[in-house]
Design a protein that fits this description.
Layout: H1 3-27, E1 29-33, H2 37-49, E2 53-57, H3 64-69, H4 82-91, E3 98-102, E4 120-124, H5 129-141, E5 145-152, E6 155-161, E7 164-167, H6 188-195, H7 204-208, H8 212-227, H9 236-246, E8 250-252, E9 255-257, H10 260-267, H11 269-272, H12 279-291, H13 297-312, H14 328-355, H15 362-370, E10 376-379, H16 383-387, H17 399-421, H18 429-441, H19 448-460, H20 467-486, E11 495-499, E12 504-508
Parallel strand pairs: 1-2, 1-4, 2-3, 4-5
Antiparallel strand pairs: 5-6, 6-11, 7-10, 8-9, 11-12
Helix pairs in contact: 2-20, 8-9, 8-10, 13-14, 17-18, 17-19, 18-19
């Protein structure tokens, strides 16, 4: 990749996930135990994402099977270390990543205690639950994230354990949420601004530029007075009716002009109607109550924000303001009002933290405060728990969901078979019967004939990989690992299952 291509990629990534995300990816150290088709497809995406340190550990030798399924080996590599071979070719994709191949057993866990230590470990293939449990204990003890991915034929599953994971920029993509205009219950400075507009005596030009926050608030007050009810009893239709009454025909320089603030108030009335705390933020508060005092900057900020909310009944304002249809003069005024509100609220949070002897660096504090309405968190289960997770009865109604439940159970059966027999299941009647018995032992209500059908499909693959399925599924895992590294969006919270025959996938936890 040329320097120009690298610069373009870095610029795109900065736009996509910002400077915090870019730094996180660049500093990430990811170890992959295995170098088969699934592993290399995952690695390809991770390297292209720009992960700074990537290590491949495997003692496998390039074989004829690899030449058919693994795009990161050639005929000239036959008989050589597969880990070293794929690392060499992966390095060519991105010179900014440091890709290392180690020709050693992927079951030797001594790498955890060596420098540089990983912060994410990924395993591949149908592995024994006992090994995954051993690895999980080591990863948890060293605060290392863990993922396991396996595909068989047309089917795939992966499992993620990122510990107690915090999210700064969650799934809400809006940079300036309309709900945070605080129109239903304006704070004093905003109310003063709203009351500064004289709807009756202003000029047509001024009337046409009254911002929607003032239009909504005044219409709601007028509707409540006219109907003799409190504002919380009003419907959106009643407020809309009042907005229409408050409109006027505005003529400036002999031309009819639109009342853009009134139109915006009508369009966004459902965003303005009720005060609300985002559900994701409420979930973080709830999780904070469950986990107690966690000595991490994110959780110190969460608890301080909770205390602010308990006192003020609103979140500290993030300090931003969306574009509003009004005059430049009005917008500058209202934007400053929200900026100053944010500064005031977060100074209160900062003072609270100082009183408790907690110091948060400015970068983290700013990142949290600007995204307080879309923070998130996941308290992951361990990999041993996730690989044994049984389907919930809630998935019994939809046919596609039921088939995903069957796939979920068969992957459990595949691992149990390997644990008990020391070999991978083959396409024999005896092994298929054993897999069916393992599924039945799980005690999940499933259609027996459908289970047998899917076991047949699994067995036909003979534990082999289909490159196209592996590529698609591994790319999905790479995206989830990236989300976790940059602490953005909403990563899979546990298990992800894929049925390529039905082109259907589902996350479960």
């Amino acid at each position: 990749m040329s320097q120009i291509d690298q610069d373009e990629r870095n610029s795109r990534q900065l736009i996509l996930w910002g400077p915090h995300g870019q730094v996180a990816v660049t500093n990430s150290r990811i170890f992959v135990l295995g170098s088969d088709c699934v592993a290399t497809e995952f690695l390809k995406n991770i390297v292209l994402h720009g992960f700074g340190y990537v290590t491949v550990i495997d003692d496998a030798i390039v074989s004829d099977d690899d030449l058919r399924t693994n795009f990161f080996v050639d005929a000239e590599h036959k008989g050589k270390s597969r880990a070293e071979t794929v690392a060499e070719l992966l390095q060519e994709l991105n010179l900014d990543s440091r890709v290392t191949g180690l020709n050693r057993s992927p079951f030797d866990l001594s790498f955890i205690s060596e420098d540089p230590k990983p912060n994410f470990v990924v395993t591949c293939g149908n592995l024994k639950p006992s090994f995954l449990e051993e690895l999980s204990k080591v990863c948890r003890a060293n605060k290392v994230h863990q993922a396991h991915i396996q595909t068989v034929g047309f089917f795939g599953s992966f499992y993620i354990d990122a510990g107690l994971h915090e999210i700064y920029e969650g799934s809400n993509t809006a940079k300036y949420p309309l709900e945070e205009l605080r129109v239903p219950n304006p704070f004093p400075e905003l109310l003063e601004f709203i009351n500064s507009f004289d709807f009756e005596n202003c000029s047509d030009k001024e009337h046409s530029h009254i911002p929607s926050v003032a239009v909504f608030y005044k219409a709601r007050e007028a509707a409540a007075k006219e109907l003799g009810v409190t504002v919380d009893k009003l419907s959106s239709d009643q407020i809309l009716s009042q907005i229409k009454k408050m409109r006027r025909v505005c003529i400036v320089n002999n031309e009819l002009i639109a009342e853009i603030g009134f139109s915006e108030a009508e369009e966004k009335i459902y965003n303005y109607m009720y005060p609300r705390v985002p559900s994701a933020t409420r979930e973080v508060f709830s999780l904070s109550d469950k986990i107690g005092e966690v000595d991490e900057p994110f959780w110190h900020l969460v608890r301080a924000t909770q205390r602010f909310y308990n006192t003020n009944k609103v979140l500290p304002h993030y300090g931003g303001c969306p574009d509003l249809d009004t005059s430049t003069e009005n917008f500058i005024k209202i934007k400053k009002i929200y900026e100053e509100k944010g500064e005031k609220d977060w100074q209160q949070v900062r003072n609270d933290l100082n009183e408790k002897g907690v110091t948060i660096d400015d970068s983290t504090f700013k990142r949290f405060s600007q995204n307080v309405w879309r923070i998130g968190a996941v308290n992951y289960q361990t990999i041993p728990e996730l690989i044994e997770l049984k389907p919930s009865p809630m998935f019994e109604n939809d046919p596609k969901d039921k088939n995903i439940s069957i796939i979920q159970c068969i992957f459990i059966a595949f691992r149990k078979f390997f644990e008990k027999n020391g070999r991978q299941p083959q396409n024999t009647q005896e092994d298929r019967d054993s897999l069916f018995a393992e599924v039945k032992e799980l005690g999940v209500s499933l259609d027996d004939e459908q289970v047998k059908k899917y076991i047949q499909e699994f067995s036909r693959a003979k534990n082999n990989l289909i490159p196209s399925v592996a590529a698609t599924f591994a790319a999905i895992l790479a995206e989830e690992v990236t989300k976790i590294a940059i602490k953005q969006a909403c990563p899979v919270k546990g298990v992800f299952l894929y049925d390529s025959m039905a082109n259907y996938a589902q996350a479960r936890w």
